[in-house]
């Protein structure tokens, strides 16, 4: 997640072109000095947020349009029906059933009112619903699976249940199912009764089997029950018949259903003979086509009919047409709400594709997919690609999903699998109006869940009309349907075309679009990877022509003279596009003019034509994605209205699609700009730029496996089939210089401490520690001070513990190359860390735990002792670490070939595991103090590690790419941290996030408690024993995916609530933890969600907001409930309700990411800290309100500021072992420490903490400790910077980036020690040799490095000698001259 | 359900497409003429849809599939179009729509905007939604009524149907055609009458 939010691209504000003077392409020496700006940040037009209309909910539709009140001229008894459904398709069918009943019936007149389940969120609607129930005769419910709303339905119906004549609930959550009653038939015993009827609801883990066994029952039971005499059986039979009527949902069936129920159960009709026909049954699953005379149960029969169609030409009927499989819901077909299905079928056929539209009545489509889309004889797919129009996961719909089952079926089918969706909870207009786009619940149900099946391209293809009657049906969105169908056919073509004719556009990025950044991607050696991919494709039969000899030559081809480029990259021009051609090929070009004027503009242009950079090699084009255009100019981004891609950007994709005519585009590495272009968050419309840009090209995207959150955005917004790649293997940071000396001193202390030399050695340790600036981390006695032997041990122990902490940090080494799995020894550090975690779910004990146990210790105690600096524990921990590394190295060595590559793990393992005595780890441990370690536990652990090793070195990255390009299905897999979750491996999977409703998990809650407790303890120690009243913290998307919601759970635990899972295991509710149990006051929070978190977890923001509001409204003493305390104060001060004052969940406005503080710092375009804080406030003060969730993000700056002003501590989580505070700019970008100090009435600086749960021994450190640790392990560590230098040009930039990020921390938190800059200066500037290497390798980055040093001094973050500054100034002009000299 | 053989099906096409007896045709087109001259555009619009369904397919589906448009006899479509043009000072009719369609590069969103079938939304970004049937459409002929506003062809099932209508041979070089008498003289043999056919007007935007 190297750049989680470093793509701050969109912001709805107002345009202010005149401000572009702020942007300076060239930064001068004193650019950090206060500059005159033409604008007062406070007077800028406020960010316009669309006002909430109506109830603030997602849908404004009213059930009143569905109310039918009969005229009842003949004074017949009235039967009132109230229904609640998820599926809008039932409304029209029910309405027309009731209308015809009222026209023709002679026994009763029917009143009916229907509610869509989502509408019950609205308080008034809910009241009406309750009122309606009071005089209703019959209640009907179906597919009620949203817990919040299910509980509302339950509460309302329960009250009336006894009085109601009949209650019929079809598949829904058990709570609602229990409401069922028909005479003597009741389901109130659901889940408890032993009767076989109820047993089917009991098997919790059966996935969609639930609905299917219900269906089976429906088919068989009536026949049996018919012959049973008792009333009970009769009632049960009627229930089953009802279900048949319902599932057969045509108006006729529903008419008979209503006749049957009212005739049998409404007292006023007792004695009236009401005739009804049996349900007309449809196939449970089959093939349906609007023109076909019937539904088919056999694909051959269907195709026979297709072949005889007289309305289509031979081409479509013949064997050469592409064939698209469609997956449909039967309920839409039988209720006649199928216009949107017809639209897709017609569009595909009109475009020359044959269709096989299959349907199922249940929720498990995996069976029908296998039955109808796979040839039973050849086992080959009958189709070239598949589009599900249901929006649901393949197995389980809205109920219980079974993703492994779905993946199994889709692997068998092995074609691209697209899941498009119709709007369910919103009307077309509501969706169009929404900046969020798709309703968050629908995102959770119909985007996030299908992704777990490997479903791609969540395109909204059908909308709904808000009005009554027939017109409530779904209707096609013509442009969306077109987009969906062209894309489906394109994917199908990949399956059909030969390799030689396939055209591939490889797209590389230049992000950040600095000089010399072309072809950068997180952790990836891009050109070496492309080279290896091209070689492989060539071998595989693709026409790759004129490929140079080496990867370097390839770079040279695309970027001429890559090292000398300073102001303008000298890229190879692949195509010049005239403005006229551009306008013809790019229908949305006029929309870009508001921001960029008339084409061609300045970017990617020669003044007359638009330039496409890149080079073609036969059927492969390597192109450079244009830059976003705003990067050097964060102010412009802040002030510009609706940002948009520039003409050059659009021209690039027009070229790829329409001139080069790519069959697929391959975006190469994490990450580009396309998917961050403005538009809805999820569910693009015609005017969303990512959708327009990608057009109809299938998008394959190599993405770092550790970044599932941004990969998910690429999937949803640019329709990418992501293929994961491995991040480079990590190494331990090791020790150097003084730190190494210290470690040697400590070891001699241990052997000599009782020899009388103890005090002397301790003195050396203390002075060396001081030289290493460890005095900030460890309280060191004054020099010369006499201390007792016990105290000496403690001082040494503490220093030792610090040293070990530094030594064992992980550093990713080098860059990954696609198709080159890590060598054996490279995998060791990763395996050691995998082995350090307990995995109770797999029955695997951690290696440190096993080793500690063998010497009679508990590893947790050892960790705690070591943290406290107890010397013998620190020493033991070091021994454990050494033994772990040794044991694992010896194991890995045994699986290695001569070249050092891991081969044949499986074979080797068998031979190793076969002979206990030979086990390499036992051999190794036998020579250590841990020789008694439990062999069985070790064996289990090493078997697990063997599996992991196999996966680490597996090379599926090229294979998966080839599968995608051949139009095959790419197996989905989670993204995340391989150490925590080895299921991430092997790479080469289509990355998905997780079921957002599954988090936080119980395990995450457990870890969260530990961290929160440590944090609170730590804060009490630093703060005179007082609890913090408020903690301001950040929620990251990737973090929460990797940890299954740990930081989310932290927030819940701070305010003292716990998540409650519903009967389906989904978390949509919280309940307060009692103050007794909590044992401390409820701590107030200010939650800053990253833009990516907001995109992925809007429901969890909703949950948090509900939790905060609930806590604020608890009747508790304010000194025990700081949330309430502050909310009461704020409500009073602002004159608002407590509930509104209790607003704590903030993020960016929709479609905008990051606070942009990072951009300002990177470009030195800021005057003072106040300006940065203003940026933060203006970008981040958008709140989510659970009482008006449909309003999206609404600006609530006042409450934000007030809440922040109460913060005693700020807090962030580190999410992965390889990325720390100064590696990326987004951590300081979201840090509010100095801002809080400014806002606090007492002006006190809050404590700042960073939690690190990436290793077995979770730590909460202060921010300054973490910055120091980071500086020691990276910036100042020879192992790190020499490693960087070895990658040349790029390496210098990496070094400079760390220093710039360090300045960022100074600016936002002031938590960087002077010595960090001082040491950096001596390492990189005072060392002549180093200085010369830096300058000659990458003068441009070196200039920035020198500038950053000067800036650190100029802004008052670094005090140093005049001498140092003079030298830097002099260097600056030298390098400036050098660069100018090169340039001209 | 047994399917006729391909040849039988082909024969079927002939019988279907030539099934409108002249008298029936005339009387049916009379209803359209009647509504148009009233003028009652709302009813004329309904009648037009009814005719299209009838002319294009025998199915009880209630709507026309794009692939069936080819079965609508050129002359019949022309009669309908001429009727609309005649009673609207050449403002309404498929051929009018076709001209606009050609002018907007056959882009249906642009066409729908020109025809007044979509409305602009009040959002920051320029966006359009479909107009609701029937109230948001204009059923009078006056200066405000956009050119080509009627007859309606809905987009409920996408644009392929409309696409095929506009591409129908009836509107190739349409401008010169003056009357409904084409090469077949508008006279057909056939026995079926409109009344025999089941349809449900299910055609709305």
Give the low-confidence spans of chain B: 1-24, 176-205
Order of helices and strands of chain B: HHHHHHEEH
Give the N-terminus to C-terminus distance of chain B in angstroms: 33 Å
Largest sheet of chain B: 2 strands, antiparallel
Uncertain segments of chain A are 1-53, 199-208, 562-568
Order of strands, main sheet of chain B, comes to: 1-2
The number of helical segments of chain A is 56
Name the helicity range of chain A: 40-55%
Count of distinct strands of chain B: 2
Report how far the terminal alpha carbons of chain A are from each other: 38 Å
Fraction of helical residues of chain B: 40-55%
Shape of chain B: globular
Question: What's the overall average pLDDT of chain B, rounded?
Answer: 75
Radius of gyration of chain B from the CA trace?
Answer: 17 Å
Number of strands of chain A: 37
Overall radius of gyration of chain A: 33 Å
What is the percentage of strand-forming residues of chain B? Answer: under 5%
GO molecular function, one term (chain A): ATP binding
Family (chain A): Belongs to the Mg-chelatase subunit H family.
GO cellular component, one term (chain A): chloroplast
EC number (chain A): 6.6.1.1
Describe the protein.
The complex is a heterodimer of chains A (about 1400) and B (about 200). Chain A is an alpha/beta fold. Chain A is built from 56 helices and 37 strands. In chain A, the strands form 9 sheets. Chain A has an 8-stranded mixed beta sheet with strand order 34-33-32-31-28-35-36-37, sandwiched between helices. In chain A, strands 18-19-20-15-21-22-23 form a 7-stranded mixed beta sheet, with helices on both faces. Chain A has a 6-stranded mixed beta sheet with strand order 2-1-3-4-5-6, with helices on both faces. In chain A, helix 12 (about 340-350) crosses helix 17, helix 30 (about 845-855) crosses helix 32 (about 870-895) and helix 39 packs parallel to helix 42 (about 1100-1110). Chain B has a two-stranded antiparallel ribbon with strand order 1-2. In chain B, helix 2 packs antiparallel against helix 3 and helix 2 (about 20-35) packs parallel to helix 4 (about 75-85). Chain B is globular, with a radius of gyration of 17 Å. The two termini of chain B are about 35 Å apart. By secondary structure, chain B is mostly helical. Chains A and B meet through helix 9, helix 12, helix 15 and helix 17 of A and helix 1 and helix 7 of B.
């Amino acid at each position: 997640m190297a750049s989680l939010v470093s793509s701050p691209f969109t912001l709805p504000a107002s345009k202010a072109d005149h401000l572009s003077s702020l942007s300076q392409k060239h930064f001068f020496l004193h650019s950090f000095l206060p500059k005159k700006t033409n604008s007062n940040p406070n007077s800028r037009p406020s960010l316009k947020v669309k006002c909430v209309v109506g109830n603030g909910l997602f849908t404004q539709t009213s059930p009143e349009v569905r109310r039918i009140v009969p005229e009842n001229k003949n004074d017949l008894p009235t039967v009132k029906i109230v229904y609640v459904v998820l599926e809008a398709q039932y409304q029209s069918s029910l309405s027309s059933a009731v209308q015809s009943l009222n026209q023709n019936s002679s026994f009763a007149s029917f009143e009916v009112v229907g509610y869509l389940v989502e509408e019950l969120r609205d308080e008034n609607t809910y009241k009406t619903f309750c009122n309606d129930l009071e005089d209703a005769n019959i209640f009907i419910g179906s597919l009620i699976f949203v817990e919040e709303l299910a509980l509302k339905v339950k509460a309302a119906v329960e009250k009336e249940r006894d009085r109601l004549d009949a209650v019929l609930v079809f598949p829904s959550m058990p709570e609602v199912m229990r409401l069922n009653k028909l005479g003597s038939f009741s389901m109130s015993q659901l889940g408890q009764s032993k009767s076989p009827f109820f047993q089917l609801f009991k098997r919790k883990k059966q996935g969609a089997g639930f609905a299917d066994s219900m269906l089976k029952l429906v088919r068989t039971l009536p026949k049996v029950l018919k012959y049973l005499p008792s009333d009970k059986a009769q009632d049960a039979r009627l229930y089953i018949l009802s279900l048949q009527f319902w599932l057969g949902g045509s108006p006729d069936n529903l008419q008979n259903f209503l006749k049957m129920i009212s005739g049998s159960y409404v007292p006023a009709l007792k004695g009236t003979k009401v005739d009804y026909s049996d349900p007309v049954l449809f196939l449970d699953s089959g093939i349906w086509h609007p023109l076909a005379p019937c539904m088919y149960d056999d694909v051959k029969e269907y195709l026979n009919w297709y072949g005889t169609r007289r309305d289509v030409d031979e081409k479509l009927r013949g064997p050469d047409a592409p064939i698209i499989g469609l997956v449909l819901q039967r309920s839409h077909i039988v209720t006649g709400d199928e216009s949107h299905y017809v639209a897709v079928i017609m569009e595909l056929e009109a475009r020359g594709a044959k269709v096989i539209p299959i349907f199922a009545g249940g929720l498990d489509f995996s069976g029908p997919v296998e039955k109808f889309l796979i040839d039973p004889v050849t086992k080959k797919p009958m189709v070239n690609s598949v589009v599900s129009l249901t929006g649901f996961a393949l197995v389980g719909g809205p109920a219980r999903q079974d993703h492994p089952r779905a993946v199994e079926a889709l692997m068998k089918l092995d074609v691209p699998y697209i899941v498009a969706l119709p709007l369910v909870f919103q009307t077309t207009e509501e969706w169009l109006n929404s900046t969020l786009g798709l309703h968050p619940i629908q995102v959770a149900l119909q985007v996030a869940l299908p992704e777990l099946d490997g479903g791609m391209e969540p395109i909204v293809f059908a909308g709904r009309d808000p009005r009554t009657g027939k017109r409530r049906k779904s209707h096609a969105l013509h442009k969306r349907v077109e987009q969906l169908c062209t894309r489906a056919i394109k994917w199908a073509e990949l399956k059909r075309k030969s390799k030689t004719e396939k055209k591939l556009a490889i797209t590389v990025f230049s992000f950040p679009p600095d000089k010399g950044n072309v072809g950068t991607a997180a952790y990836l050696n891009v050109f070496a990877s492309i080279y290896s991919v091209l070689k492989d494709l060539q071998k595989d039969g693709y026409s790759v022509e004129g490929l140079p000899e080496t990867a370097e030559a390839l770079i040279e081809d695309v970027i001429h003279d890559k090292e000398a480029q300073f102001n303008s990259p000298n890229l190879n021009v692949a195509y010049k596009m005239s403005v006229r051609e551009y306008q013809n090929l790019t229908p949305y070009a006029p929309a870009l003019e508001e921001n960029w004027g008339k084409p061609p503009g300045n970017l990617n242009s020669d003044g007359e034509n638009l330039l496409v950079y890149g080079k073609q090699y036969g059927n492969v084009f390597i192109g450079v994605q244009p830059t976003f255009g705003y990067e050097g100019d964060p102010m412009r981004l802040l002030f510009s209205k609706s940002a948009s891609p520039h003409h050059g950007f659009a021209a690039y994709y027009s070229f790829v699609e329409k001139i080069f005519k790519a069959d697929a585009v391959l975006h190469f590495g994490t990450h580009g700009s396309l998917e961050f272009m403005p538009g809805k968050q999820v569910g693009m419309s015609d005017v969303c730029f990512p959708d327009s840009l990608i057009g109809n090209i299938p998008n394959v995207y190599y993405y770092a496996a550790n970044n599932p959150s941004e990969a998910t955005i690429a999937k949803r917004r640019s329709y990418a089939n992501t293929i994961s790649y491995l991040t480079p293997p990590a190494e331990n940071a090791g020790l150097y210089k003084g730190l190494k000396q210290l470690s040697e001193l400590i070891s001699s202390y241990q052997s000599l401490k009782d020899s009388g030399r103890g005090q002397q050695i301790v003195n050396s340790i203390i002075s060396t520690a001081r030289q290493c600036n460890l005095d900030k981390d460890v309280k060191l006695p004054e020099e010369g001070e006499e201390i007792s032997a016990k105290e000496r041990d403690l001082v040494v122990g503490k220093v030792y513990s610090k040293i070990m902490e530094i030594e064992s940090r992980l550093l990713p080494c080098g860059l990954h190359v696609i198709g080159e799995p890590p060598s054996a020894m490279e995998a060791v550090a990763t395996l050691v860390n995998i082995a350090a975690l307990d995995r109770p779910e797999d029955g695997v004990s951690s290696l440190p735990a096993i080793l500690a146990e063998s010497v009679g210790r508990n590893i947790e105690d050892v960790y705690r002792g070591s943290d406290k600096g107890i010397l013998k524990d620190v020493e033991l921990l070091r021994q454990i670490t050494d033994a772990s590394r040794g044991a694992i190295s010896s194991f890995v060595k045994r699986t290695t070939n001569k070249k050092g590559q891991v081969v044949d793990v499986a074979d080797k393992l068998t031979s190793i595991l076969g002979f206990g005595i030979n086990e390499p780890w036992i051999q190794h441990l036998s020579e250590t103090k841990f020789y008694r370690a439990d062999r069985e536990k070790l064996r289990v652990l090493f078997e697990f590690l063997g599996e992991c090793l196999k996966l680490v070195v597996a090379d599926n990255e090229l294979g998966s790419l080839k599968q995608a390009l051949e139009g095959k299905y790419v197996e989905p897999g989670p993204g995340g941290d391989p150490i925590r979750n080895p299921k991430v491996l092997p790479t080469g999977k289509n990355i998905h996030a997780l079921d957002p409703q599954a988090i936080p998990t119980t395990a995450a809650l457990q870890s969260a408690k530990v961290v929160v407790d440590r944090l609170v303890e730590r804060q009490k120690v630093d703060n005179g024993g007082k609890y913090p009243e408020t903690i301001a913290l950040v929620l990251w998307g990737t973090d929460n995916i990797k940890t299954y919601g740990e930081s989310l759970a932290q927030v819940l635990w701070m305010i003292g609530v716990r998540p409650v899972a519903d009967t389906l295991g989904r978390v949509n509710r919280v309940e307060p933890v009692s103050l007794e149990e909590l044992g401390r006051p409820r701590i107030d929070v200010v939650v800053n969600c990253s833009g990516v978190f907001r995109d992925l977890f809007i429901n969890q923001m909703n949950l948090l907001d509900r939790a905060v509001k609930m806590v604020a409204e608890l009747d508790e003493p304010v000194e025990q409930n700081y949330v309430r305390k502050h909310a009461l104060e704020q409500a009073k001060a602002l004159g608002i309700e407590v509930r509104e004052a209790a607003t704590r969940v903030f993020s960016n406005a929709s479609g905008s990411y990051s606070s942009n503080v990072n951009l300002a710092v990177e470009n030195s375009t800021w005057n003072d800290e106040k300006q940065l804080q203003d940026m933060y406030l203006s970008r981040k003060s958008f709140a989510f309100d659970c009482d008006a969730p449909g309003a999206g993000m609404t600006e609530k700056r006042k409450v934000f500021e007030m809440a922040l002003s109460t913060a005693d501590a700020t807090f962030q989580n580190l999410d992965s072992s390889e990325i720390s505070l100064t590696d990326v700019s987004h951590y300081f970008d979201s840090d509010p420490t100095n801002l809080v100090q400014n806002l606090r009435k007492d002006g006190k600086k809050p404590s700042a903490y960073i939690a690190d749960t990436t290793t077995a021994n979770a730590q909460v450190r202060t921010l300054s400790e973490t910055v120091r640790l980071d500086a020691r392990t990276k910036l100042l560590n020879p192992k790190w910077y020499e490693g960087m230098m070895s990658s040349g040009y790029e390496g210098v930039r990496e070094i400079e980036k760390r220093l710039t990020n360090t300045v960022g921390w100074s600016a936002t938190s002031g938590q960087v020690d002077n010595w960090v800059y001082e040491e950096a200066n001596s390492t990189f500037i005072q060392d002549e040799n180093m200085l010369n290497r830096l300058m000659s390798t990458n003068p441009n980055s070196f200039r920035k490095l020198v500038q950053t040093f000067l800036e650190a001094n100029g802004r008052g973050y670094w005090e140093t000698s005049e001498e140092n500054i003079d030298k830097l100034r002099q260097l600056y002009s030298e390098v400036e001259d050098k660069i100018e000299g090169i340039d001209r | 359900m047994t399917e006729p053989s391909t040849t039988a099906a082909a024969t079927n096409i002939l019988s279907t497409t030539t099934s409108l007896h002249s008298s029936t045709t005339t009387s049916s087109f009379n209803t359209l003429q009647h509504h148009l001259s009233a003028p009652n555009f709302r009813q004329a619009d309904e009648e037009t849809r009814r005719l299209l369904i009838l002319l294009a397919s025998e199915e009880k589906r209630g709507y026309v599939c794009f692939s069936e448009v080819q079965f609508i006899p050129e002359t019949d479509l022309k009669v309908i179009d001429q009727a609309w043009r005649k009673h609207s000072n050449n403002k309404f009719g498929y051929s009018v729509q076709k001209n606009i369609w050609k002018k907007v590069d056959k882009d249906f969103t642009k066409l729908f905007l020109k025809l007044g079938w979509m409305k602009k939304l009040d959002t920051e970004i320029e966006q359009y939604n479909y107009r609701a049937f029937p109230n948001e459409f204009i059923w009078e002929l006056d200066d405000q009524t956009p050119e080509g506003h009627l007859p309606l062809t809905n987009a409920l099932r996408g644009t392929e149907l409309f696409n095929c209508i506009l591409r129908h041979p009836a509107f190739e070089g349409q401008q010169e055609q003056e009357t409904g008498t084409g090469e077949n003289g508008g006279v057909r043999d056939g026995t079926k009458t409109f009344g025999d056919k089941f349809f449900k007007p299910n055609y709305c935007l």
